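Final report, results section. Input specification for complex C-07:
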Amino acid sequence: EVQLVESGGGLVQPGGSLRLSCVVSGFTSSDYWMNWVRQAPGKGLEWVANINNHGSDTYYVDSVKGRFTISRDNAKNSLHLQMNSLTVEDTAIYYCARDGNSWNDIDYWGQGTLVTVSS
Amino acid sequence: QSALTQPASVSGSPGQSIAIACTGTTSDVGGNNYVSWYQQHPGKVPKLIVYDVNNRPSGVSDRFSGSKSGNTASLTISGLQTEDEADYYCSSYTITRTYVFGTGTKVTVL
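Structure output:
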């Protein structure tokens, strides 16, 4: 059974940092691209970043470029999102999500971890 | 990287068919065939229901179908059922190798 379990969310002050993690199981992580997708309370989905199978290529939405870094450790079946210089606009549930065998077909999602940026 | 445009809400009666449009640009929807659709019930995780414009993952009802013309993709739900009441999001691969979601559509079954 495919499982994705996020951790690391919480309350942080504006300007602060947070590191999210996602541990995956039920599939060979090095076979798939992985994503972070977020959803602000009561709002729509926003794709944040993704990383290729081996961690050598990364892509970001413009609003987080230079502040967020996505990384992975296939040996530990884990995905990470380092978030720096956080603003209130970054408040959201952050989902770890797996790409399927095509492009832009996110076929498995974690339950999400809530990040709240507030003073 | 502007969000794709979807109607805020669409409604229909049980058994009817409804369509949800998703409008982008030549840099996303119009520039490739990697358009996906997701269903999200309140408090739940999104679920992939269509990928590559018109393909359904295993286990997804054939009442859901996708299409595309130019810069606009569409999701059609046939034989509308009460359990179809949810939020629906389109998504597209983009020319900059990123992904972009639509603004979301709330489907109400009358």
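The interface with chain B takes residues 35, 37, 44-47, 50, 59-62, 95, 100, 102-107, 109-112 of chain A (CB under 8 Å). Chain A has no helices and eleven strands. This concludes the modelling results for the funded period.
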